[in-house]
Amino acid sequence: MNGGTAMRKLARALLVVPLAGMGFAALAVPASSQPVRARACSGWQVVPSPSPGPAELAAVAATSATDAWAVGNRLTPGGSYRTLIEHWNGNAWKVVPSPNPAGGTSPTDTLGGVVALSRTNAWAAGFYEKTTTDFRTLIEHWNGTRWSVVPSPNSGTGANTLAAMAAVSATDIWAVGFRQGASGRRTLTEHWNGRRWAIAPSPNVGSGDNLLFGAAPDRAGGAWAVGSDSVSFGQALALHRIGPSWSIVPTANPGQGDRFLQAVTAPKARVALAVGSYLTASRTLTLAERWNGSAWSRVPSASPGADYNRRGQPQSRPGRRLAVRDRGYPAWRVLGGRQRGCGYPHRTSLLTGVTARLPQTAAPVSSDGLRALRAE
Questions:
Q1: CB atoms within 10 A of CB 118
Q2: Which residues pair with residue 216 across a beta bridge?
Q3: Residue 16, pLDDT score
Q4: Is 83 helix (H, G, I), strand (E, B) or coil?
Q5: Structural contact between residues 137 and 152, judged by C-beta atoms closer than 8 angstroms
Q6: How far apart are CA 181 and CA 160, in angstroms?
Q7: In this predicted structure, which of 115-119, 133-137, 195-199 has the lowest mean pLDDT?
Q8: Across residues 194-221, what is the average pLDDT?
Q9: How far apart are CA 45 and CA 22, in angstroms?
Q10: If residue 13 lies in a helix (H) or strand (E), which one and from where to where?
Q11: How much is the mean pLDDT over the chain?
């Protein structure tokens, strides 16, 4: 597989999950189904969300129990991917029109990350592709009335994709992903200072692929970004931003390789949680790590089933999306295939998202990735 094809497959995999070749499918319910109360969900409740044809939701963010955004993409009858943005008003999810800058034959527009700071200030990030160009970064903004494209930079002429966002404040927002470099895919971090988006230099391990899939603000005014690098058959990658620059922070790397961190959250000072997967003895198992203010260490996480492969599939009609809400807290996660959904015969050994509970002060939080794990 040549570099261009590999980049295309990996970036397009972000339409569903930030891992190339995993082939995640949407979890679906028939149109006539009522919201499902899963018997072992510990407070999580399935909430229907509209689906304009085949569609995926990739990230969610909320400012309150009555103001939440979910972003992703939808597939048109003509085979094009278009942005999909939905809003929760406290009672129901509703599709909100969103721009699509790509044009030409079979264009691609998709969103992978979102942050919400107030009812009149939200951001979403992803990428788009025209027939005559490679993947380009895509950032959209909500001003309380409509979503619009905000110019965002690209590094070089190769593919540039954004997969996640983190908001420290209204004038300090990050979008992270990866770009095509001369020797492989390299980390990409972009910053909003209240006036414009600009690329911020970000470090890489070795000369091979370095990919960022998740991001979160920390309580010290900095930010985290997590992903994977290609050293030793794939190591978990964590970048920390404190002060003027990003730095690489060593992570726990169990197993034989193929280690990915998919998402991160920092719910307390000197505490961060990151989740993903790793390979050992030809099995892909869940990976959960905790930052204690000085080092990352592995924490136990369940890996039901023999591997991440599905053991069953709910009998349902394709193309319907689900959103899942914890009834006890104003926090959201989006749920897709291969996730071990409560009451569904799925098995998974892959953790691909984390989200912190919305605090009582209704401060903005974000969650990037198709699966979410609430952090206490």
A1: 14
A2: 224
A3: 41
A4: strand
A5: yes
A6: 10
A7: 133-137
A8: 95
A9: 26
A10: helix 3-13
A11: 76
Residue found under tokens 């300090």? 172
Closest CA to 271 of 256, 293, 243, 286: 293
- Distance CA(326)–CA(179), nearest Å, equals 35
pTM of the entire predicted model? 0.78
Query: Does an H or E element contain 56, and which?
Result: strand 55-64
The full set of domains in the chain, from first to last, is 3-375 (2.120.10)
Question: How far is 152 from 162, CA to CA, in rounded Å?
Answer: 10
The percentage of residues in the chain with a pLDDT greater than 90, rounded to a whole number, is 54
Q: Closest Cα to residue 310, out of 350, 353, 348, 276?
A: 348
- State which amino acid sits at residue 182: A
Strand partners, 31: none
Collect all residues with Cβ–Cβ distance below 8 Å to 367 and sequence separation of at least 6. 59, 60, 61, 263, 265, 332, 333, 353, 354, 355
- DSSP of 323-367, one letter per residue? EEEETTTTEEEEE-TTS--TTS---------EEEPPPTT---EEE
What angle is formed at CA 177 by the lines to CA 356 and CA 349, rounded to 5 degrees?
Answer: 55
* Residue 180 contacts residue 187 (beta carbons within 8 Å): no
Which tokens sit at 321? 């999306």
